[in-house]
Amino acid sequence: xxxASTICLNCLMSLTDTIITNAASANADDLCAAMASAFSDYxxxxxxxxPAFRFMMKQRGHxxxxxxxxxxxxxxxxxxxxxxxxxxxxxxxxxxxxQHRGRGLATNLAHSALDGLQRRGTMxxxxxxxxxxxxxxxxxxxxxxxxxxDLSCYTLTGPQPAKENLPPVRxxxxxxxxxxxxxxxxWGPSWQNSDQSITAIxxxxxxxxxxxxxxxxxxxxxxxxxxxxxxxxxxxxxxxxGIGTALINHALAATPTEQLRLINAxxxxxxxxxxxxxxxxxxxxxxxxxxxxxxxHA
Length: 298
What we know:
Mean pLDDT is 91; it is low at 1-14. The protein contains seven helices and twelve strands. It is α+β, with helices and mostly antiparallel strands. It is 24% helix and 32% strand. The chain is elongated. A twelve-stranded mixed β-sheet has the order 1-2-3-4-5-12-6-11-10-9-8-7. The relative contact order is 0.15. The protein has helices at residues 28-38, 50-60, 105-119, 134-143, 195-200, 243-253, 270-278, and strands at 18-22, 68-72, 75-85, 88-96, 124-130, 146-156, 170-172, 206-212, 215-223, 228-234, 260-266, 281-293.
């Protein structure tokens, strides 16, 4: 139940014909359609096919019982799709269909979801928001979320000349290196690019790796169909030798569109930003990563 103090009191009258419930009974077609409508006028419109929506939910770990939807006249008017992994939770996607905005649906869905997460013992709640999406950012701040870091995003469109005498790039199963990649990273990936997210879709990713005397020196993980580069890393002792460039070149060759999107790199890593500038890439709109301790949610 939503605590009385958290209800949008100015919207009570407009919510009398609204049902707020979890998403366990909603099917993928309806959730996908609602998300497409909610994001139709977004800075980055999202109009996924149902298979692509299912893939997104699988990758990010959608928890239907922890998610919330608002239903008006039998149709989904707003969504708050959540993932729960252990004591951590994540907002995959939220939005309100344009004709139902201004009724407090997002606020009430948020409080209902956060109350439910508290009851199940979840400790943290996080998400990302586009830098220019000030409306969503205001809501998240009102809920108690604070910025953890800035995230940079890039589009990579062409291969670079590769250095000679590099260790070969080979395709291997993700499971072969999942337990060792952390040693190659200076910062943790965002939720959608995390090791758990990759494991959830391991049969649909391609994992490229280089080794030196059996030791992992570099790796890249991508989803060829979408052109998403989920992770890339080079061991600190093997950097500036061209391994990163070789991995990017092989990843581009494995992508039908010959274009990659790298989402949510830690903007504080100036060395990585320099590497991106050296690769033919374009920096696109970035995001803020936000987080809150659920103990702070009243």
